[in-house]
UniProtKB/TrEMBL annotation:
GO terms for cellular component: dynein complex. This is Dynein 2 heavy chain 1 cytoplasmic ATPase lid domain-containing protein. Coiled coil: none annotated. It comes from the Eukaryota. Pfam families: DYN_lid (PF22597). The lineage of its organism: Eukaryota, Viridiplantae, Chlorophyta, core chlorophytes, Chlorodendrophyceae. It comes from Tetraselmis chuii.
């Protein structure tokens, strides 16, 4: 169902063809992140809010679809997708170990599922040092 929604949105928003071709990878990566985070970051008494459901996947796609301009570059789509997955999943995490694990996993997903290299997608953002 997410693929159908994504395809519809790409057509409606007049996204470039090479962006549209990332739709399947986008859905696959989002579902894989959802499944992995549910398995790896389980709720504990200190992390009782580490509960995830299908609405979290929907939130990622709703956030992406709020973009009001057509996407012309697959890197733009991947940056937007990464932002939304960080917003939906990463923002809940309460310690540095969990946050680092998620960021490493997100990088891995971009490299393996999106057909792009994380370092190339985010090269305009420096080395991550904040300087």
């Amino acid at each position: 169902i997410y693929l159908a929604i994504t395809d519809w949105w790409f057509r409606r928003s007049r996204a470039a063809d090479d962006v549209r071709m990332k739709g399947n990878a986008l859905v696959k990566a989002t579902i894989q992140i959802y499944n992995t985070i549910r398995e790896q970051l389980l709720p504990t008494p200190a992390k009782s809010h580490y509960t995830y459901n299908m609405r979290d996947i929907s939130k990622v796609f709703q956030g992406i679809q709020m973009l009001g301009v057509p996407l012309s570059d697959p890197k733009q789509l991947v940056r937007l997708w990464a932002h939304e997955t960080l917003r939906v999943f990463h923002d809940r995490l309460i310690n540095d170990d969990d946050r680092l694990w998620f960021c490493d996993y997100l990088k891995q997903m971009v490299d393996t599922t999106m057909g792009l290299k994380f370092d190339k997608v985010f090269e305009d953002y420096g080395d991550g040092s904040g300087t």
